Each structure stands twice: as structure tokens, then as C-alpha cells.
Amino acid sequence: MKAFKPVRGMRDFLAEETSLMRFIEGKARKIAKIYGYKEVITPVVESYELLAAKIGEEMRSRMFVFKDLGGRDVALRPEFTASVARLIATTLRTEPRPLRIFSFGSVYRYDEPQKGRYREFWQSNYELMGSNMPEADVEILMLTNSLMESVGLKNYVFKIGHIGVLRGIFNQEGLGEKTQNAIMQLMDKKQYEEALKIVEDAGASKKCISTIQELVKLKGREVFTIAEKLRKLVEGYEKAVEAVKNFYEILRLIRESGCKMDVIVDAGFARGLEYYTGIIFEVYVPEFDIALGGGGRYDHLIELFGGEPTPAVGVAHGIDRIMLAMQMQKATVERTERAVMVIPVEEGLKGEALKISQMLRTADIPVEVEVMGRKVTKALEDADRRKMEYAIIVGGKELKEGAVVLRNLKRREQKTVKLEEIVNELKGHGD
Ligand code: AMP
């Protein structure tokens, strides 16, 4: 048979990468815990109609869609938000608000594969549902900041915009939802001229066009100055003015929270997902020009799925890209494991070796037993090659005294240790 490779856009994770992924997953889960987000597991396969409802044209066209054997139109989830919103609209309909929900898992998009862009990738996802208050938006930003910090990333920047400002202007100009979505998709790709062409063709006023032309230039770290300029710029567009107030409130709360976040306001920032209604944001590191995570406020999605009106804000972190960013920044991953290799000196001591291994495992010490029938010297070389930290050499002479030889493979030192002291030795003063 031919040699198979993973399907284009799909990857195998070998041990080292898997361990990095699980490290980040552990941090993401810890963040969920300390911020009060309860984890749920939703299906990878969902109804196409649900997933497609508000995802935006671009992503809709990139979904893995198929009919199941029962003839249902289904798709692999390209994100978590639709699934969580479905839950809130149905099973969790009567749960007291707010609801804080965490999910972790793989998502699927038929993107063009390249560095940091895959067809199967992993996200940690947090949704805060039931609150329309700015402090809810800030919480989502803060937990994102906590995650980036806890995995050891440096110099990451939050780019923040507000969809409510743009929608406020376009609604007052009488632009339909479809037209607005097409404009947002283009703005998301920074194709401002093409976006403006649609604004013009849709019959928007001259004031609208010049407002948008000025608005896309408002960008930078002096967030309050920019917010003030934005407020002046959108005067006369009532809903847009309200949105700027909300934007300002969020920026003020970020500052008052004391949370050290590097924020760039970008008034012309839009995102392809159609469900956003308020702030939107993405996180970047300087080494990498694609986002490590993104989110925002979406106040109408749950209603759309038949639920009670439930304002919500959420974020998805791209685990694969966080892994790449950590590798580029050489972020260090804490390693606490003290891997031990147990080697019997002769055939007759195999049983003893298994017994000692089990005793160590009961004390949570990771142990491998020599299973290749190697002699001690070869087995030690192998343990070295595999970067184990210790070897326990089980020999008849020491066993008679109730002891074994404990070898520190890094330091190339060894000593005889009583069996009852070995766990303490490895856990406490192993160094
Ligand atoms: P989005 O749902 O588009 O906001 O995506 C959230 C995050 O998922 C992004 O900020 C990326 O970090 C990550 N992401 C999106 N698309 C891909 C992809 N094709 N491959 C890897 N990560 C991705």
C-alpha cells in the first residue's frame, strides 16, 4: 500500500508539540477556573444552518459541509460561539444570568494552509452571557491578557475597534444588513477603497463617505485622544455617538482596572463575523502578523436562535498560533516532571523492578521500566538519550539490604538509597 500523509491542512502533533499544546490548555483551563467560567463540551458536528446563520460569507464558504447518512445538512464547527449560543437559547434558557462558559477543542475551516493557518486548529473559548455592561467586555479582555501572560508571551498588543460605531453610521444612512456585511468583510481585509465604493453605490450621503474616510485613519495608542476625535467625527449619527460612549467607558475601565494592557485603538477595524455588535478586538505579537486571538460583543445572536434576548461578549484564542508565538519568543515552559528509568540488573529481578516502579507511580512519579532486555550500560545510555533525569538500578546486592542504586543522569552521580526513602529522595532533595 502507498505511504499515507495527513490530508492537506491537517497535522500530526508529535510528543513535544502535544506537550506544549497541553501546557497552554492547562493554563487556559486555569484561567477559566479563576475567572469563574464553567467548561462545557459541545459536538464537533452541528447543523449547517446553525453554524452558517451569522458567521459571515467568508467563513461560511470555508466550512467543511456534508450530508450525514440520514440526509441531514451538517458541518464541522468553525468556531464555538454558535454552539454555546444554541445552548443558552435552549437547554440553559432559564439559568440565572450571567453565564460564564468555557470550551476547549478543535475547530475546522477550509483556509489556505500556511504558517499559523491550518484547516484543523484549536481554540480556547470564553463567553460571558447576559450582561451588556462595559465591565463584562473588560473581563473578557482581562482574561485574554491573563492567558497571554501566563504562557509567558511578551510584547503582545490588543487591537480594539467598535462595530457599533460603524453600524450606527450605516443604519442611519439606511444601508441594508447585507450591504453592511459586505462592507465589513472588505474593511476586515483592509480593502478600504473597495468598501467605500460599496458605501457610495448604496447611495450613502457625502457626509457618510467623508466620515468613513476619516474614521479609518483614527488609530493609535493615545486611546482617549482617539476616542475623543471619533466622538467629534460621528456627531449627528446618534447610535454611533452612543457606541463611542460605550467604547470610551470600556477604555476607561481597562485603565482603572490596573491591568497592564498594551492597547491600540483602531476605529476602522472590522471583523468578518457578522454577529458582532459592540467592541471587537484581536491580540498580536510583533513577531507575527496574524492574530493570536479575537473576540467581541454580540448582543443579538441568542435571540436569533430563539432564546431570550441575551447580550453577550466572548473571545476565542488560537492555541496553534500561541504555540508558534511562544516558540518564536522562546518562552519557557515549566517542567516539573522527574522522569525515572527503572533497570533490573539481571533477569531474576524483573519482578522487583516492576514492584518498585509501581511504588513510585503511586507517589505520582513518572516511571518507565526497561523493557528491551538491555544490560545496565546500554539501558543507561538509552535513558540518557531520552533525557530521563534518574535511573534506579535494581541489583541483588543492594536489594538484600533493602536498597537500590539511584543515579542522577544529569550529574552522572549515584548513591545507594533505602527503598523506603526513595520517594522522598526523588521528590524532595533529588537535586
Ligand atoms: P476567529 O473566530 O476568526 O476570531 O478566530 C479566533 C482565533 O482563532 C484567531 O485569532 C486565530 O488565533 C485562530 N485562528 C483562526 N483561523 C485559524 C486557522 N486557519 N489556523 C489557525 N488558527 C486560526
Architecture overview:
- By secondary structure, the chain is of the alpha+beta class.
- It folds into 2 domains: 15-329, Bira Bifunctional Protein, Domain 2 (BirA Bifunctional Protein, domain 2); 340-428, Anticodon-binding domain (Rossmann fold), CATH 3.40.50.
- Helix content is 41%, strand content 20%.
- The chain contains 17 helices and 17 strands.
- The chain has helices spanning 15-35, 48-52, 57-60, 81-89, 134-150, 163-172, 177-188, 192-201, 206-215, 223-233, 238-257, 301-304, 319-328, 350-362, 376-385, 396-400, 422-427; strands at residues 38-39, 45-47, 65-67, 73-76, 99-108, 120-129, 157-162, 219-220, 263-266, 279-284, 293-297, 312-318, 340-344, 367-369, 390-394, 403-408, 413-418.
- The strands form 3 sheets. It has a 9-stranded mixed β-sheet, sandwiched between helices. The chain has a 5-stranded mixed β-sheet with strand order 14-13-15-16-17, with helices on both faces.
- Helix 14 (350-362) links the parallel strand 13 and strand 14.
- Helix 6 (163-172) runs antiparallel to helix 11 and helix 7 (177-188) packs antiparallel against helix 8 (192-201).
- The chain is elongated, with a radius of gyration of 28 Å.
- The model has no long low-confidence stretch (mean pLDDT 95).
- It binds adenosine monophosphate (AMP).
- The site of adenosine monophosphate has 17 residues, from strand 6, strand 11, strand 12 and helix 13.
